[in-house]
């Protein structure tokens, strides 16, 4: 592959959740390879892929992958593609470094777009529990001290913010960065 190839990280929404919409990671790796991507690696069953491509930007690749995925598997999954630089900034700009050592209590939401001030204010009004959050551009950082599963606020984020998103815990964020580093 040429020196101009870029590393991308793909975050799927809504696959392999609750035993529904099952996509095996080996099949997903093959799917990406068949599309011409190189150095394809997956991480855990929730739909995380790292690959290298000399063609396309994140937005174009997202659209292409969504269409090809729906054609192959017969259902739609929102696919967010981010380049390695975006992922490195996500990690570097973590506003809660003091809880990074508790990776199941710190989450990053990849947002389809940066929320408006009104959308952010609406979400702030709902944050009344032990959780705290911060939005930096198109990333929402959530510290859920009791874990995501027990967080009432975390369940309110999609309905209140109304910006398409997919969340990953900090352990996954770091693992994807490591995979992307190996790819580079």
From TrEMBL:
Pfam families: DUF1697 (PF08002). SUPFAM superfamilies: SP0830-like. PANTHER family: BLL4334 PROTEIN (PTHR36439), DUF1697 DOMAIN-CONTAINING PROTEIN (PTHR36439:SF1). This is DUF1697 domain-containing protein. The lineage of its organism: Bacteria, Pseudomonadati, Pseudomonadota, Alphaproteobacteria, Hyphomicrobiales.
């Amino acid at each position: 592959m040429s020196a101009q190839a870029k590393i991308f990280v793909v975050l799927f929404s809504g696959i392999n959740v609750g035993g529904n919409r099952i996509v095996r990671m080996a099949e997903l790796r093959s799917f990406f390879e068949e599309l011409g991507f190189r150095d394809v690696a997956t991480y855990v069953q929730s739909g995380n892929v790292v690959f290298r491509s000399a063609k396309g930007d994140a937005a174009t690749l997202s659209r292409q992958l969504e269409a090809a995925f729906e054609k192959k598997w017969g259902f739609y999954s929102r696919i967010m593609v981010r380049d390695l630089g975006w992922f490195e900034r996500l990690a570097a700009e973590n506003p809660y470094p003091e809880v990074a050592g508790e990776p199941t209590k710190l989450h990053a939401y990849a947002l389809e777009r940066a929320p408006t001030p009104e959308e952010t204010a609406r979400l702030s009004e709902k944050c009344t529990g032990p959780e705290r959050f911060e939005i930096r551009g198109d990333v929402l950082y959530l510290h859920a001290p009791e874990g995501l599963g027990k967080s009432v606020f975390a369940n309110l984020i999609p309905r209140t913010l109304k910006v398409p998103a997919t969340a990953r815990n900090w352990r996954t964020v770091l693992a994807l960065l490591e995979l992307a580093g190996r790819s580079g």
